[in-house]
Design a protein that fits this description.
Blueprint (H helix, E strand, L loop, with lengths): L5 H10 L2 H6 L5 E3 L2 E4 L11 E4 L4 E4 L5 E2 L1 H9 L3 H11 L12 H24 L4 H9 L4 H6 L3 E3 L5 H8 L4 H6 L3 E4 L2 E4 L4 E7 L5 E8 L8 E3 L15 H11 L1 E5 L2 H9 L5 E3 L7 H8 L4 E5 L4 H16 L3 E4 L8 H8 L1 H9 L4 H8 L7 H16 L4 H15 L3 H11 L18 H18 L2 H10 L8 H12 L10 H4 L5 H12 L7 H33 L5 H26 L3
Parallel strand pairs: 12-13, 12-14, 14-15
Antiparallel strand pairs: 1-2, 2-3, 3-4, 4-5, 6-9, 7-8, 9-10, 10-11
Helix pairs in contact: 3-4, 11-14, 13-16, 14-15, 17-18, 17-19, 18-19, 20-21, 20-22, 20-25, 21-25, 25-26
The chain binds zinc ion (ZN).
Zinc ion binds next to loops.
């Protein structure tokens, strides 16, 4: 195991800003003290993923995932604890000296290395005699050698194990071969995944190759295009093809053209439209939108000129709006894609269409398959649009869109607004932890009291925290997660309780345990009489074990009576336990009076 000194971990955790880290991947909107967004770890339409900046933690009330900045990167990027620390250290300018390597950074560097080796191997193929027919094809498609070189296009030849030999010569480990996405495993062995394909390297933000798109060159494969699967270094939700090489052009006037295909991108790029990225034919995700927002405020969507392309453009348009980017949709001629269009009609016709690009509402109206002369069809379209508009975080933009829809529908703005509001459901109600369903069992009472104490300790109510510090007996905690959390919070130096709770989450190696912990810490206590609740919980925790002892003693007593044994001692011990319970009631009174 690579060991990172604890004080370095602490420094990284203290410097990392959870809001900042999560915002890279998730659109967050403020509501009260916390921020909410659509969970990146499960599919959802209404935000239940919440981030508490004051506590430096996140939790999803939909799927239960939760943690701190370090664990967020671990789960999102599928990387190790140390890798996550490395990323954060880099980001916040903290020097990180690994005491020993645990092999995980070796694993990742090998993943990158095999991709670099693959790019070089495919490029060599393309330049060789083998690649002649591919070079002819590229020429026929109108791509210059320069464009091919800028985007490192290559050729995966016919062999079953050519890239595999390259990997073996590089002494790449079996695990890397298994997980890099460049090979497939069948019952006959391991083979190159890409064969007879024109290869488009896909790069990440740092311009390192993390995957490939491959176009079938034999016409024999069912899939004309095949992409690398998701791997520890290739996160499809976040990467747009070409962006690492075009972002500077996008940044210049903060606009980006987004197309669907690799060829569309290359053709337009070659024709001087260099502020461009491609989705590789998948739906535009919120992660990709976040990436775009770093370089552009306006996006021109130039999707294929068919029903599927227009539908995808409309969806992408709304996604961009939700991410705070202004979408414009370019009208691509019927049955054309940007590549064939520009090749046929020249780039000027593209530029003209770009200048006339419409906003998403206008485009949606123009291309809905619904019959707008029919009233119920119209109202269905209004419903469709309102559902999308409900997801727009910026109220001003949302109102403007609502106005546009109302104008086009020739209906009252308020009517549209009502549908939007109806669709803007609040995040799912924060449910209690499942273990707290029954109030009647002593066990669940104990758990509930433990939960409440944690929440109160995390609440930052200094008077209550002080009361709990003086009176909590950790030995009465039955749940190990709660016990660990309570121990941390009770010893925490933060007198105000909640300045940074994220460190507590590093105490849990088990994902499930960390999730329970993050949830507890995030649930805010709205108790008006926090003091009384705290006292009740303290008393419950002490009382329940006594009650259980009495119950056991009673059973024993009955047995002894039946056996005709002397029970006086047992009776005395029950009496003693009863007395202790009475004492607790007295203690309750004293603690309650302490504040009055
Ligand atoms: Zn979730």
């Amino acid at each position: 195991m690579a060991r990172v000194p604890q004080d370095t971990i602490d420094r990284i955790r203290d410097s990392a800003e959870i809001l900042d880290v999560v915002s890279d991947y998730v659109e967050l909107r403020r509501r009260g003290r916390n921020y909410f967004g659509l969970c990146p770890f499960h599919t959802e339409k209404t935000p239940s993923f919440s981030v508490a900046p004051d506590k430096q933690i996140y939790h999803c009330f939909g799927c239960g995932t939760g943690g701190n900045a370090i664990s967020f990167l671990m789960e999102y990027e599928k990387i190790s604890f140390v890798e996550s620390l490395q990323k954060l250290a880099e980001r916040y300018g903290i020097e990180l000296n690994l005491q020993r390597d645990d092999g995980s950074s070796e694993f990742f560097s090998q993943l990158y290395d095999i991709h670099t080796a693959a790019v070089n191997f495919f490029k060599k193929n393309l330049a060789s005699e083998l690649g002649k027919k591919i070079r002819d094809y590229l020429k026929e498609r109108g791509l210059s050698n320069e464009t091919v070189a800028i985007f490192d296009l290559g050729y995966a030849d016919n062999g079953w194990d050519h890239l595999l030999s390259v990997a073996k010569s590089k002494k790449v480990t079996q695990e890397v071969i298994k997980k890099c996405g460049l090979f497939t495993k069948t019952d006959k062995g391991i083979f190159d995944r890409f064969r007879n394909r024109l290869m488009f390297p896909i790069t990440n933000r740092g311009d390192r190759v993390v995957g490939f798109g491959g176009r079938d060159m034999l016409g024999e494969s069912d899939a004309k295009y095949m992409n690398s699967p998701e791997t520890p270094i290739y996160n499809k939700r976040e990467i747009l093809y070409g962006l690492s090489r075009t972002k500077d052009a996008a940044r210049q006037d903060r606009t980006l053209v987004v197309v669907e295909g690799y060829m569309d991108l290359l053709q337009l790029y070659q024709n001087g439209i260099t502020n461009i990225a491609a989705t590789s034919g998948t739906a535009l995700t919120s992660g990709q939108v976040s990436q775009i927002r770093k370089f552009a405020d306006t996006v021109y969507l130039a999707y294929d000129g068919d029903a599927a392309g227009r539908k995808a453009a409309i969806t992408a348009g709304y996604n961009l709006l939700k991410g705070g980017i202004t979408p414009k949709i370019v009208e691509v001629p019927e049955e054309k894609d940007p590549d064939s269009w520009v090749k046929e009609s020249g780039v000027d016709s593209f530029k003209e269409a770009q200048a006339q690009a419409r906003d998403v509402i206008a485009f949606h109206f123009g291309h809905t398959p619904r019959d707008l002369s029919n009233a119920s069809e119209r109202s269905r379209l209004a419903e469709e649009m309102s559902t999308e508009l409900a997801g727009i975080g910026d109220e001003i933009i949302q109102r403007d869109m609502v106005r546009q829809v109302a104008e086009r529908m020739a209906v009252d703005e308020e009517a549209i607004l009502r549908i939007v509001k109806k669709n803007m459901r609040r995040p799912r109600r924060q449910q209690e932890t499942p273990s707290v369903q029954s109030d009647t069992e002593p066990g669940s009472q104990t758990e509930k009291a433990e939960c409440e104490i944690i929440k109160l300790l995390a609440s930052g109510n200094s008077q209550v925290v002080e009361l709990l510090r003086d009176n909590t007996n950790l030995e009465t905690f039955t749940d190990p997660v709660m016990k660990t959390l309570a121990g941390y919070l009770l010893e925490s130096e933060n007198q105000n309780g909640n300045s940074n709770l994220s460190g507590a989450l590093d105490l849990f190696q088990e994902k499930k345990e960390r999730e329970r912990a993050s949830r507890l810490l995030l649930e805010t206590t709205t108790e008006e009489d926090a003091h009384r609740v705290a006292v009740d919980c303290l008393i419950t925790l002490e009382k329940n074990p006594l009650k259980q002892l009495i119950e056991q003693a009673r059973i024993k007593l009955r047995g002894m009576e039946r056996a005709g044994e002397d029970t006086s001692e047992a009776v005395a011990s029950v009496m003693h336990l009863r007395q202790q319970i009475n004492d607790l009631e007295a203690k309750r009174k004293t603690l309650l009076e302490a504040v009055q």
